[in-house]
Amino acid sequence: MIQDRLRTRMGWLHAWSGFVFGLLLVCIFASGTIAVFDTELTRWLQPEVPPSATALTDEALEETLPTIRKLLERDEKPFITLPSERDPILRVQYHDGHEFLNIPFDPGTGQELAARATVGGTFFYDLHYSLRNGDTGIIFVTFSGLMLLIVLGSGIIIHLKELIPDLLVLRPFSARLRAWLDVHVLASVPFLPFAFMMAYTGTFLHTRSILPPVSYLASINAAITPVAVRAESPALQKEKTVVPALPPLSPLLHDAEKVVRAGQVGFILFLPKNILISRTDASGPARTREHVDFSYDGHFIRHVLLTTPLTRTQQVMEGIHYVRWGGAGMRWLYFISGLATTIMIGSGLVLFLMKRRRLSGGRVIFRLAEGLTVSVLVGFPLACSGFFWGNRLLSGGSEQRTQEEVTVFFLIWAASAVWGMGGCLMKWRVQVWRSELGLLAVLSALLGPLDLLTRSGGTVFHTPTVFAAVDLIALCVAAVAFQIARRLA
Amino acid sequence: MSPDLSSARQKAFVSPSRLVGRVLVAFVLAWAVAHFLTLGSSGWGPGNRHDAMIFGQMIAVAAFPIMGLLAFGAWKRLTGPVIVACVACLAGLATLIHL
Q1: Residue A409 located in a structural domain
Q2: Of A84, A203, A329, A431, which sees the most CB atoms within 10 A?
Q3: Residue A463 lies in a domain
Q4: Which of B11, B51, B66 sits opposite A311 (nearest CB)?
């Protein structure tokens, strides 16, 4: 029985909804936090690509056209990402249904750079917003975002009186429950605006998936019918394979730059009927996706920029969620805030278990819950670490290499989940936590040496920033995992 | 302990299964509000229908947690559920409006 008061009611709601959705949310926030640096991670994952390059030339742009043609013949929708401050390389990219795969080119000469095929940093981006499950995953993620707003709201009601005093209290060496509660509150309160903002804007981005502007029956019909029509229409399939002659790109680029200003073009997208030259997302907080369209015979078609106040608001909301406009400092701020929010959710999961261990610790359902928690809190970072190892150790020649990287990630995560749940069911709780944390510590600590050994021309004292940052963060993860494993009772 | 005091104390407690029921009621009501807001909003904009729909979605995402917490939190004399049910009815009726 529970006291029927507002605070206890909200405490109950906070605990249960927080635990059930927290298992998913911790993965969403962790992958989102990593995806803040998706472009930089792609550079780490392709160590053959030089860390710096010369400025873009018109000739280099034209050199990409044969690759573009090949991709168009495969019914892909390729696009060229122009060099930027974050990534000085010219890249031809396409979406494989999950990630944006890329083929790097030297921006000075246009020569294709021999680099390993990788899913790159966009793997974490796809994991973040769709759990690598397309529309179904988007529905789960969006719904979890909506639930996070409820969890945050109920959490504020519980802590309303103590919101400010709790900020000043951290007792890492007090009783375990107290210490974890301090960590939970300390990770929550200062980053509440961030958590609210990300939950709200993230949910809003895909509201249509769970709250369609038509009745649910109509939206289910709409989701089914077009797919069936498309599959049965051979005329449409035939039309896709006809690739028109590609025009020289540099005149189009210079024409587009007259509209969106020089240096503001982000990418050139090749659609079946026309070519879109689009403004970079880095140009400002509003993600306008302003674009200038050309036909394949090189004629200007139109300039598209949506400027109504509500569209602008939507663009700003998207912009502040994706943070592609911010410099390195802003991205680090997002990374730290995302990390704190992940810690908030993770510590909440631990607290949920700790509070119920005395009364329900022997029950099968509790042991399963603990197994799930281990799989998520330790298994997910373990799988991430394994993914980086896989990237460097898998052979470069395989055509299925990108898929193999993904398989490594999910195999490690699955193994961690099986051991986590199996071990907890067998009442080997401490051994499960210790072994997984220990493995995480070892894999993460050795990621730096692995990077140095598998990157050509790598030296300890002259490591480019993106490589040094990834290696140092892995070392920090290793230290934290080691410390938690050491203090486990 | 007098019987009156004992029953009053019992009333001050609630079983977890009842709380689950309350959560379901609050969820359905809050979802109805959010759904009707997104459903009707495209008809409320005199000019650009897309803009009105976007605005409806913005409101719906913010309204869902507020309505949910209100319906679940203010359970005494069913104040919260009644208020949220009224809002849901109003939002449902508003889907009939086309400007």
Answers
A1: yes
A2: A203
A3: yes
A4: B51
| CB nearest A4 (choices: B14, B34, B55) | B14
State the helix-helix crossing angle for A328-360 and A192-205, rounded to 10 degrees: 100
Q: Where are the alpha helices (DSSP H) in A74-133?
A: 122-130
A315 to each of A205, A306, A417, how far by Cα in Å?
A: 10, 9, 39
Show the beta-strand stretches assigned E in A280-355: 291-295, 300-304
A154 touches chain B (CB under 8 A): yes
Handedness of CA A228, B41, A307, A196 (dihedral sign): negative
Query: Between chains, do A308 and B35 touch, taking CB under 8 Å as contact?
Result: no
pLDDT, position B1:
45
CA-based R_g, chain A, Å: 24
* Number of domains present in the structure of chain A: 1
Q: Which residues make beta-bridge pairs with A269?
A: A79, A276
Alpha carbon distance A294, A258 (integer Å) = 14
Tell me whether residue A412 is in a domain.
yes
Contacts of B42 in chain A (CB under 8 A): 213
Interface mutation target, options A6, A13, A307, A313, chain B, most CBs of B under 10 Å:
A13
Residues of chain A found within 8 Å of residue B79, distances taken between Cβ atoms: none
Query: Cβ distance A223 to A269 under 8 Å?
Result: no
Q: Which pLDDT score is estimated for A237?
A: 53
Distance from CA of A11 to the nearest CA of B (A): 11
ipTM: 0.90
Place of tokens 């997910």: A380
Query: What would the DSSP string read from start to end of A158-218?
Result: HHGGGHHHHHT---TTS-HHHHHHHHHHHHHGGGHHHHHHHHHHHHHHTHHHHS-SS-HHH
pLDDT tens track for B21-43: 999 999 999 999 999 999 999 88
A360 touches chain B (CB under 8 A): no
pLDDT digits (tens, 9 = 90+) for A56-81: 999 999 999 999 999 999 889 999 99
Which residues in A lie closer than 8 A to residue B65 (C-beta atoms)? 146, 149-150, 152-153
A465 inside domain: yes
